[in-house]
Amino acid sequence: MSKPLIVITGASSGIGAAAAKLFSPAGHPLLLLARRVEKLEALALPNTLCRRVDVTDRAQLQAALAEAEARFGPADAIVNNAGVMLLGAMAQQDPDEWQRMLDVNVKGLLNGIHAVLAGMAARGRGTIINISSIAGRKTFPNHVAYCGTKFAVHAISENLREEVAGSGVRVITIAPGAVETELLGHTTDEAIKAGYQEWKQQMGGVLAADDVAEAIAYAYGQPQRVCVREIVLAATGQPA
């Protein structure tokens, strides 16, 4: 295969699945990771290894990467897309929901970075693409813990970029506004979910997962000497 391996976490739906469907026809072999492996397999993409992996489990992630690299060669990029959004008012929210977001959105991201970084640095090239959110740049009602995790993604990404710039590895942050994915469905507070849906309608619609995937592909497609450090995108009608 003429194109190198790309790893995508949280690839069973939404942005991850959309990115997979862009990179595969471009000729990239893929390692797709998610807990719902049947949805990965349903994408039916060629030269693709699908594995049931919880990104909070470092050993699972590293084992899947080793298997993919043995088959397809070294990973040239990882899209750290796995994430959960559990909105809630701080005084009422179950602390287990904070922990879940910290585990997936922060620890899972770090596990993805750690799995590929040493190899990329040794080869003198590679791209780490971290999917954050506008909620990693500004705050929103009922987003306290979620914003905390996404502000962490921004900080981790920028600090990492500075750390590895001299090694030829690029670090890119993609920060979408509201996107039509399954993410809101994770929230357990029905009133907050209803309010969020109303907000989306008021702005006249939100981004599609394909819109974000195109931004990912654009940033990755630049020459290796060019690092698009951050892309922030949202529906034109989204005011905040």
From TrEMBL:
The top EC class is: oxidoreductase
Q: Which UniProt keywords apply?
A: Oxidoreductase
MF annotations from Gene Ontology = oxidoreductase activity
Q: Does the keyword Oxidoreductase apply?
A: yes
Q: Which PROSITE patterns match?
A: ADH_SHORT
Query: Pfam families given for it?
Result: adh_short
Q: What is its EC number?
A: 1.-.-.-
Q: Is the keyword Oxidoreductase assigned to this protein?
A: yes
Q: Looking at the record's lineage, which domain of life comes first?
A: Bacteria
- Please state what the protein is called: SDR family oxidoreductase
Similarity comment: family membership: Belongs to the short-chain dehydrogenases/reductases (SDR) family.
The species this protein belongs to is: Chromobacterium indicum
